[in-house]
Amino acid sequence: MMQSVPESINFAQEEEKILELWKQWDVLKTCLRHSKGKPRYSFYDGPPFATGLPHYGHVLAGTVKDIVTRYAHQQGFHVERRFGWDCHGLPVEFEIDTALGIKGPQDVAAMGIDKYNSECRKIVMRYANEWEAIIGRLGRWIDFKNDYKTLYPWYMESIWWVFSQLFLKGLVYRGVKVMPFSTGCNTPLSNFESGLNYKEVVDPAVIVSFPLLEDNTVYFVAWTTTPWTLPSNLALCVNGNSNYVKVKDVKTGKLYILMEVRLGILYNKEDQYIIIERFKGISLKGKKYKPLFPYFKDYASRGAFEVLVDSYVTEDAGTGIVHQAPYFGEDDYRIALEAGIITRDQKMVCPVDDRGCFTEPVTDFLGQYIKDADKNVIKYLKNIDLLVNSSTSKHSYPFCWRSDTPLIYRAVPSWFIRVQQMCNDLLQNSQSTHWVPEFVKEKRFGNWLRDARDWAVSRNRYWGTPIPLWVSDDGEEVVVVGSIAELEQLTGQTIKDLHRESIDHLTFPSARPGRPPLKRVSEVFDCWFESGSMPYAQLHYPFEHRKEFDEYFPADFIAEGIDQTRGWFYTLLVISTALFNKPPFKNLIAHGLVLAGDGQKMSKRKKNYPDPVEVVTKYGADALRLYLINSPVVRAESLRFKEEGVRDVLKDLLLPWYNAYRFLAQNVTQKVKEGMQFTFDESLAITDVSENVMDRWIISFTQSLLLFVKTEMAAYRLYTVVPRLVKFIDHLTNWYVRMNRKRLKGESGPVDCRHALTTLFHVLFVMVRTMAPFTPFITELMYQNLKHLVLFCDTKETTVSVHYLMLPEPRTLLVDEVIERAVARMQSVIDLGRVIRDRKTIPIKYPLPEMVIIHEDEQCLQDIKSLERYILDELNVRKVTLTKDKQKYGVSLRAEPDHKTLGARLKGEFKAVTIAVKALSDLDVQKFLLQRFIDVLGHRLEPADLRIMYNFTGAAAEDLAQRYEAHSENDLLILLDVTPDDTMLEEGIARELINRVQKLRKKAHLVPSDEVTAYYSISPSDGQLARVAASHAEFIENVVKGPWRHCSKKLGHTLMIAEETQMVKGSELKLELVKGFPSDYASCDSVKTRTVEPFCRYVNVQLCEGLEPRYGATSTMGTVLLENPVCENFLSLPQLRKESELIFGLYGQNFELLLSDASSELKGLPDVDSLHKKTVLVVPKKGESLKVPSLVQGPPVTKFVNVNCGGKKATLLLENPAGNFSLESDVVTMRKLLGCVYGVSAKCLNMGTVEANGHKFSTSDKPLIINSK
């Protein structure tokens, strides 16, 4: 049975309970057991480091992965989800270096690699438990027990195999290359690593003069922001096609040579220099100059210290003459190599060590850190009169992504993978993959691949997978080892671990007799090579799991941040292309970056973002998940994280959704208590379709949503799916439930109530399955209650959790595009009307006379007409007028520019554009509303740039403008009459009173079925509010479904539930809610609307003060039939007494019966005719003086239905006492009772359609016709 649902909810606490359920059920393992044998869906999880705690980037990536893999399971796939850990590399080593104060390789050597790596191993999984707890708390299902770690020997062995294959294919070489170098981590970085952490910095910018050897009065001038590279200068470079000049400095008299278009970098005004000569850059080739420093003067014999020519020198920066330090710049190295100044195999001219400190022969700055040495280099040049100018330059500069220290470009010997020669294959394989968003693949990733460079995969570090190359002392013999078994065979040793301390000492004989044994090279792999090898290494391929690998490769899906286009995405593709010339994945989602609220990078040091754990504890994981994935970040844009955004998701989406579910549960449980049999069979959704238009709309919209979700999720477009799901929640809660509350409560009869409840149940049941991958907690919470009423076809085990269920298939037969279109138009009308009410500050409570809806399309007007009653109700207007004739109302449209938006953008042109905008015709503005843009004087203007205004024209323009307020959306225009009359104003005030009653009921935690009387008093008693409270009492009672009484009519023994005093319309209103209804309420409420009499004669019975209804009865009034069928089975006095006892549960009570117009006990029954329609009082016997309530003689106080069976007439009471124990939906009991009345078996009665049941028969003259079989 469905459980009652509390009014309030703490989402975070409920999620904790769901987590406990999942833990008990071992949900992921159970899911995998259920899906065993189904088609496999492979997913690669990029391994994070466990040396730090998860941040919002991890939360976002994990959410995207969780959604897609959950959805894949719901689509009938077997989805293994293994977690992986990146355990090697700079992130770990940097932590140890910082903790132990290690400054460079000499410190590690003194400590010992074995001890150093032991320290690294200790912290690798420092936060593993926290990761598992946080990821689990976020609702992500991932297998931590069957994980992979890059430090596992079997994982490292697969990396060796990958490398050996590349080596045997000739894709590995050793070379010297100028690379990004981290002095903080003492190691080179790959090009993609260097792009991970750019910062705005202010560096020194100097212009330096180089004396020409042939004429020491003439100087070449060069500009640089790295003065520390000047001691290593070996050449200058110019552009041969550009124009250069020799100028005389007016102030100093010195002669300088530089590019003509770059004169502005040295001079502010033309009178500061005199041009002596003009010439092309090519004419400077080969000219020699005097070295700035003496350290490498011997290189002059190799062609150093002369001018070289290359097209990389541009005209947009510097002086047009670039100083060349070949081992500190990629182009510098290339040009010097081409010129023969250096050779590939020579000793490097690189007087800077791994820590970034100067070494020999740079004696003047020996031991100084290069950035610290900048100022001393500048001082040195100034002292020798070669410094022309010194300033600063603000520019973007790369920093180490791990140590956060400035990178330098430095030549280092390294092992490389030949990537450049694979460029076409990389592009072709990339094209065969599907990326979301597509532009990331085509632009950012595509451009990176087109400029792909050879990949330096070696690192001069310690904690990593050692490169499996054993080399002879002369470098002529190189052996690659591809497995542990191979190394054991070569060395004769048993291998248990593959880290440096375990294998560095291992050697094996040279293949050349008499040569020393081969030793392993000292480098380890770049950790990106390790993570890029995870498709193979996680399965220990090819040593194990070959069959599984063939099924899992390439992956169906991967996802990470957009920054991985130069990281993991790239390395995966390079390695898979090199190995198999295949892409490593089929589908990829690249999400954007999560920034702090101020747009800066999130920083623990700055504390500029809230702790994810605290946010989840406060709002719940579902709210955080939905906030992240319903943002621009899933379109690869950046998100400025704001905690209030998570709060708004909770308030605006999850809470209304929960309230819709609670409203369903509340009404279903109430109807079940009243006797309704309620279950849900989804297979009947097509055959048992409600005729109510709103039911059909929400069902159709649900099926359209399912079709959309399936289409878009197949294309991995989360950024289109999630907004549509959010919109669906809005449609369900703010439109369907709100507009059908009365039906769902049963106010339109039991049949219609059942249709409404079944529709809402159907929609919620579809919704919890559809939303389960996105919001796993709230969907599980709802499902655990909903499932009690569902008739499942699956086994009980597969229906335990909503996450075990498959996504429902869309039922296209239930899609009604006409109804969806009509409701969408109705919604537009209602939204426009609400905007006008808000603009004029007229609350919905106050009725308005008329709404005019203008549209040129007759079909649109017909759509709106079909739903007119909803517009009348939602906007509280008396009349809706539909027309195509806009001229009749004299309304025209005009446009005004948005000064704030356009003024800043157009600046000087704003005035002319403003005049043109104001001159736009009504037709122009209508076209703009349809197209959503317009070109004005060459400027494209969009909705944010213009404000649409409305004018009334013609003879009645002034009257129309005062009467109507206009608003439009696209080509739909509405006019709302905002001039209510006095009766409408009074109704609005009555609605204010109703609102106060309803709020107090809610505050007292009452449910609709609670019988409560509202008593009021108003001061002043002669004011408008008091007058309306009295004159609109019947209206108020009909809406609040309970008595509305002045406090002077309150009896002394009443039980107070809640009270409140407040100011309303300038009057003081005191409200009191009292338990129960007064004795006259039933007759005043239900009876007065009844126009049909029962076939059988009857008497009403009234329970008086001193006696209380019991055993489930709550009402004090009931009805007893004096005969049934007509003229048969006449009632006796003992039977009347027994009936009264049964109705009110008075077993064992001492009571007597009085006629309402007598003061003595009823001793015997008068004849039926004289007793008919009277009221009998049920009073305590020998009690105190009796206080007789005011009574209304007349129709029965309970609902009934008249019955005709073969001409024999009877009456069936549908409740007794009034409002209790309803039979309206209990056909079985009704059949039994009628069988007793007619003296036949219930099985012999053919009652026809169930539509015959319901309280509408109490106001109909059409009896229920039944036949005896």
From TrEMBL:
Signal peptide: none
Pfam families attached to this UniProt entry: Anticodon_1 (PF08264), DUF5915 (PF19302), tRNA-synt_1 (PF00133), Ubiquitin_IARS1 (PF23567)
EC number: 6.1.1.5
Top-tier EC class: ligase
Keyword terms of this UniProt record: Aminoacyl-tRNA synthetase, ATP-binding, Ligase, Nucleotide-binding, Protein biosynthesis
Catalyses which reaction(s): tRNA(Ile) + L-isoleucine + ATP = L-isoleucyl-tRNA(Ile) + AMP + diphosphate
Domain (Aminoacyl-tRNA synthetase class Ia) ranges: 17-639
Top-level division of the source organism's lineage: Eukaryota
Family the entry assigns: Belongs to the class-I aminoacyl-tRNA synthetase family.
Annotated PANTHER family: ISOLEUCINE--TRNA LIGASE, CYTOPLASMIC, SOLEUCYL-TRNA SYNTHETASE
Descriptive protein name: isoleucine--tRNA ligase
